[in-house]
Amino acid sequence: MKNSIQGxxxxxxxxxxxxxxxxxxxxxxxxxxxxxxxxxxxxALGTTAETPTLTKEEKKDIVKYITRKNDxxxxxxxxxxxxxxxEVIGCMEDYDMDGISSxxxxxxxxxxxxxxxxxxxxxxxxxxxxKPVVLYNVPGRTGVNxxxxxxxxxxxxxxxxxxxxxxxxxxxxxxxxxxxxPDGFMVISGNDNMALPLIALGGDGVISVAANAFPEKYCxxxxxxxxxxxxxxxxxxxxLLGCVDSLFLEGNPVGIKTALSVKGxxxxxxxxxxxxxxxxxxxxxxxxxxxxxxx
Length: 295
Description:
By secondary structure, the protein is α/β, with parallel strands linked by helices. The protein has twelve helices and eight strands. β1, α1 and β2 (41-44) form a beta-alpha-beta unit.
């Protein structure tokens, strides 16, 4: 499991045509680009994929397409999360798990469970999951922060809980997890701009939004971190910094789709309630991509 989710995972966007139909040709280009750019694994149906706006059938078709296009070249993580535990467990049965290496499941949103509720939620999912489970803590989106204590209890108690994607933004919280985690439990950054410090503390990599558009430099930065070359990694981090921060100025995946559109990979189309990036955002990416040689 460790080798399959170490390094850079790419949270793939879902490309749409101008009429908002799924653009599978663009998805194919994206997959080839990130594999060629040095990605270590792919994430299907993460938050960046606009999963709340996808139908059940679209999700199944996207997973089939990604696993077929990938053709075993990289591990594929599958996002299966929600705020109804029983429904999350049922959803896992909807997918063909051949070609899937692990499950990423976000903390329940909106209903804001207690820490005990979070523990029991993941315990139930891990019991039924046919693949290792990666916890996903992103309080800025869900409204609830899973504490380091809860993460560690899950990691120590439940064998099938293999890792956490940590997007709390708190290096202190992440440090406690890294200090007290059991052997083999992986800690992955859920924030592009925190991958370097997390790895420096002993973490295992990142699930990245930025690597959709800038895979070569971003994946290289992560690899340098993992080999201990933080001076080299810092130079790449600084060249990526402006673009990475700009990806989230108007929300995710609005920013990354704007950047991908500037690079000619896909349309910048999103589905409501999201709206396309502004002209100012597009100009920002056009200038930064040239200035920092991110073509």
